[in-house]
Amino acid sequence: xxxxxRGFTMRDLPVALGRLLRRQPLGAAGGxxxxxxxxxxxxxxxxxxxxxxxxxxxxxxPPSAEFPxxxxxxxxxVMSRVIWGARLSLYVGLVSVVFGITAGxxxxxxxxxxxxxxxxGSQRVVDAVMALPPIILALALMAALGQxxxxxxxxxxxxxxPTAARTIRSVALGVVASxxxxxxxxVGASRWRIICRHLIPNCLAAYIVLVTTNVSYAIVVxxxxxxxxxxxxxxxxxxxxxxxxxxxxxxxAPWMVFFPGLTISLxxxxxxxxxxxxxxxxDPRLRGGLG
Amino acid sequence: MRSYxxxxxxxxxxxxxxxxxxxxxxxxxxxxxxxxxxxxxxxxETSGVQQKQIQQIRQELGLNQPVAxxxxxxxxxxxRGDFGKSYTQRRPVWxxxxxxxxxxxxxxxxxxxxxxxxxxPLGVISAVHQNRPIDYLARLASxxxxxxxxxxxxxxxxxxxxxxxxxxxxxEFVPFSESPVENLKQLIWPAxxxxxxISAPIxxxxxxxxxxxxxxxxxxxxxxxxxxxxxxxxxHALRNSLLPVVTFVGWWGGRLLGGLVIMEIIFVVPGMxxxxxxxxxxxxxxTVQAMVFVMALVFLVVNLLVDLVYVWLDxxxxxx
Amino acid sequence: xxxxxRRILAALxxxxxxxxxxxxxxDKPRPGGILTWFDYGDPGRLDVHAESPLVVQQxxxxxxxxxxxxxxxxxxxIAGDLAERWTVSPDGKTYTFYLRKGVKWHDGQPFxxxxxxxxxxxxxxxxxxxxxxxxxLKPMVAGVEVIDANIVQFKLKFxxxxxxxxxxxxxxxxxxxxxxxxxxxxxxxxxxxxxxxxKFKKYERGSVIEWEKNPNxxxxxxxxxxxxxxxxxxxxxxxxxxxxASKIMLWDAWPPMRKTQADELARARQDVDIYQASINTIxxxxxxxxxxxFNNPDLRRAVNLAIDRQELVAKAxxxxxxxxxxxxxxxxxxxxxxxxxxxxxxxCRQPKDGDIAEAKKLVEKHxxxxxxxxxxxxxVGNYVDRAQLVIAQLRKIGIRGTLKxxxxxxxxxxxxxxxxxxxxxxxRAMDVNDASGVFHIAYTTEGGSNYGRMADxxxxxxxxxxxxxxxxxxxxxxxxELQRYIFSRGDTPTIAVAWVEGWFFTDKKLRNYKPGxxxxxxxxxxxxxxxx
Lengths: 291, 320, 532
Fold this sequence. Notes:
The complex is a heterotrimer.
Chain A: H1 13-23, H2 25-42, H3 44-47, H4 78-114, H5 116-131, H6 134-145, H7 149-177, H8 179-187, H9 191-227, H10 239-246, H11 255-282, H12 284-287
Helix pairs in contact in A: 1-11, 2-4, 2-11, 4-5, 4-7, 4-9, 4-11, 5-7, 6-7, 7-9, 9-10, 9-11, 10-11
Chain B: H1 2-29, H2 34-42, H3 47-61, H4 67-79, H5 93-128, H6 133-147, H7 150-165, H8 180-214, H9 217-225, H10 229-254, H11 256-259, H12 261-266, H13 272-281, H14 285-313
Chain C: H1 3-19, E1 34-39, H2 54-60, E2 68-70, E3 78-80, E4 83-88, E5 94-99, H3 113-124, H4 133-137, E6 141-148, E7 151-156, H5 163-167, H6 177-183, E8 198-204, E9 208-213, E10 227-232, H7 236-244, H8 259-268, E11 272-287, H9 297-306, H10 309-315, E12 321-323, H11 329-332, H12 339-342, H13 353-366, E13 371-378, H14 383-395, E14 399-406, H15 408-417, E15 422-429, H16 436-442, H17 457-468, H18 472-489, E16 494-507, E17 510-511, E18 529-530
Parallel strand pairs in C: 1-10, 13-14, 13-15
Antiparallel strand pairs in C: 2-3, 4-5, 5-7, 6-7, 8-9, 9-10, 11-15, 11-16, 12-16, 17-18
């Protein structure tokens, strides 16, 4: 699958971006959404009119000028929680993915390169972890670690690492086995040079794709964990937690589901569109034939 | 080929054992065990009696032994099909499995069938008409399924049915053998919701695979030869692009047994997912072990079959 | 008929209807129909002697009879079930029950006093774990004797006022001697052989529990219903959807409906009666008296003063609760301190400015810049929301709490081991509607839910005295003294916030249904019927 070796290097980046905007309007839209998300997350303390945990107001107030998204069952401002929720979701999504995918990728690439017993052994471990149903693994992990935002990240890292390890390993195997690599070795290129100039750049494309597609996955999984009681503590402004509380009062206070639901959908949408375009653009095989 | 199959089967076993060991240890790291739950949750006995009772229960269930010994005795029984007795239901776990497995399997198959029927054609259409309006529409439609967390979709469906039709799916589980209509009336909703959710990655993968294959030389050659466009697309492109999709579907499908838990909860389907979540929160180790074992087994078997199909479909692929 | 005549006839009919009071109540009970309701979880095990969750009791209630029960027509009264009448010896230590004759088990075997003895020997066996019936009877009962085939005697260790209410509890049901001998326990569906109004028909795990009418029930004409179906519905949205879609006829279960759910149901269905009722459950806060800062009585007093029970009832319980009371007059009658006295106690009185100021001073005395603590709670229901309100209240007096949520079972393990500083909220349902319950569970040194490890000999002594007092007036005095003592101490590790109430509904078709005084009682539906 990842047979060809025309590497994607850093110099191609601005060209790729330009192509992105012209050829991938959806991706550009996705990128804008992601940018907006990041901005909201960064500026949360300034943007949110109230604290995310301030239960100072009357519960179940419908949207109004004072509370544009209404209040929830304890009397917290939904808009403030949604804004802070962007920060929390992005934090959870990014950190868990960066740690998980990076750890997994390094693991996969290294064991692919080393080969032999190390490779076989680690693949069995990966298989074992991946055979476990993810929701149950996360549930057990959260029960063991205790409910906190950082433990959610830890659980997600455990879920994401094996996937990355397996994907990157197969990419790396392809690289290692390619005739180009053999040529490099025959010429006498050093191990380090091989790793830096060939192995890593080729895995990079797959890595970027993994990262961009899994951030939204992490956000949605975190939300599902809240539903079965294995997510972040319910007082934290996580979109999943808000939705879990909101579906208890769908008719009474639909705004409790509507606004967090809208934002989480938008976030996932944007991240996926953006990620798709990144993949379309960085995939060396497709570069020649777009249009 | 045969040696490949044998080799794969052998690799299977360590993964299964590894998975079961992992969950075994993890469950024992979770604070609280069945003894503490039984005693502390009631809180009616005096505190002196409580300690005694906790020790008594632990003794009965063998929870005082070292973890390694507990695991060995479990695996010894498991290979013979004896998964022990559930701590909470006091009956053989095998009976629980026998009841729940077919239901979740049925739901999983239904979900996959719907997802494939919807997603693959959509992906093909999307690829063939790349970057035209129908492509965008298809991509947006499939993406929207992925965007809302499953439990929200499920809750919205349930609410919508009640609000608009004053009707909810049957609350009692009726097996397919007893009454297919009643059974489907209950299962169609969680299947639809879950299928919508998993169809998105399937559509995307189908699309990207088709796109890749459409550009291959031999497709160009086929076109040049003058075969009808349709034949080109469907015979050559689809067959080869299907391989990674098959792998992907196998991977996701194998995980459905556990992944269906949220839908099972909302739509009152007494399947493996609900039993497992309940067992975890009640620290019913034998049930957790057995269910996870079965789910891991299904996952590994499905993946094995998929890999075999892969090799059979494309003899060019060699596995190092 | 002329218009005039019609009008006169109509007026006469109207007058007749208005003149006859309670026309509805005079409807004759109509046999037939299947009652539908729900269980909030899957029972798993069915042994009513050995289990404690409500789901187990609910699943088996109509199948069994007790020696006594709470009268289905008036749940505040104890009536004979299998017993026709009973006598008490002058020293109050021997109760003789005269059992009905001609009662048959569901499998056709005859019932006799030997079955009563077998059941209670099992429950009272020190080696047998019976967290509900056993825990309440074992301290009181010395033994059970058979006098003849229809007379059985209970011998008590001391004259105990709670004995009859405990025996009448839904947990103290009589099982068959031959069934116990055959199966060893009552866990299996096949072992659900009782003498009750319904036979155990079906248990589809995770899905539904069904009872069917017992045609040979010892009260001829009962039950009216053909059967009862309990769906196993987990989770609020599903339960509410079932209610709105008319799939269930009543909500008499845990958890009670929240006000928002009750309102939504009222909008969706006009054919239901919605009412608010007590669930005989107390909302407690616990302070760990063996760890800082709450090993310091001043800090405990501060928390006691600062907690705004009325606000918690208004916000966390949506107004459905009785704040401050250690005993609820609605449940315990005159054994409870009058509410106007309770509402003047420090910590309970409104406005709270004085109490909050005093609390703040107490905290400052030991921690001039305030103190940081971990506030723990189990992550179930709306406990976390309640905890946040409590944390907000404590912030006013310089106690800065960080919330620590526990998964449900892990939480119970932590409470039992004393692995907490403060439990922000933990409800406790009473098993028996007797005033002694709350004290022996949460306030006495040996109390099983005395998580804060309170150890006050005076409380123990007063509670014991009240338990053993047979004279009603002296009993009331003892309980009043006990409540007043707890309030005057003001620094107990167990803090009573409120007695919890909730919303419930019944289908208008459902007649003669009277909810019991605890969540466990009066769910046999023996005298309930469905109209039209």
